[in-house]
């Protein structure tokens, strides 16, 4: 059974993951509007990843006898002036998420909740990959700068990103994860 402190902290993390999804959905909309469909695709794939992150916690709280409580979402910015600006914002947001995951892990250790520590390990590993993905694209964008040919080439590359996480959560996240790379 989850204790109240752990349950509240995990519920706050659901909200942060849902905001992440909302933020990347907003970036996707912005780049669709700018005619950069590859960047829009990359951020929509990221939206699905964030929904998975939120749903895993939602289900975990229930498995441990707690109750997922959904809170209001903050409005994400509607506009991003350039792909570089959006990816720098993405990296900064992911660094904030990494900090919040580390704080959750520290709470699980302080509360001697071994099951939560094992559960949170997946997120610790995931954040290393998330920050690395953003850093790689930022490096490319810094080389490209304002070169339209470079932006269009990267846009074509990012158009190839596909969703590898399940998007059907109605039968439960563990069922949806079986047989996927994300599981
Ligand atoms: Fe982007 O890792 Fe969850 O929030």
Descriptive report:
The chain has helices at residues 4-33, 37-63, 83-110, 114-144, 148-158, 173-177. With 183 residues, the chain is an all-alpha fold. The protein is built from six helices and no strands. It binds hydroxy diiron-OXO moiety.
List the SSEs and their pairings.
Elements: H1 4-33, H2 37-63, H3 83-110, H4 114-144, H5 148-158, H6 173-177
Helix pairs in contact: 1-2, 1-3, 2-5, 3-4
Hydroxy diiron-OXO moiety binds at residues 17, 20, 50, 53, 94, 97, 130.
Keywords:
single chain; 183 residues; mainly alpha; Ferritin; 6 helices; 72% helix; 0% strand; binds hydroxy diiron-OXO moiety
In a nutshell, what does this entry contain?
Helix content is 72%, strand content 0%. The chain has 183 residues and is an all-alpha fold.
Determine the CATH superfamily.
Ferritin, core subunit, four-helix bundle
Most strands sheet: none
Tell me the number of strands: 0
CATH-scheme architecture: Up-down Bundle
Roughly how much helix do the residues carry, as a percent range?
Answer: over 70%
H and E order: HHHHHH
| Total number of distinct structural domains | 1
Number of DSSP helical runs: 6
User: Kindly state the mean pLDDT as a whole number?
Assistant: 95
Global geometry? elongated
Instruction: Report the bound ligands by name, code or SMILES.
Output: hydroxy diiron-OXO moiety
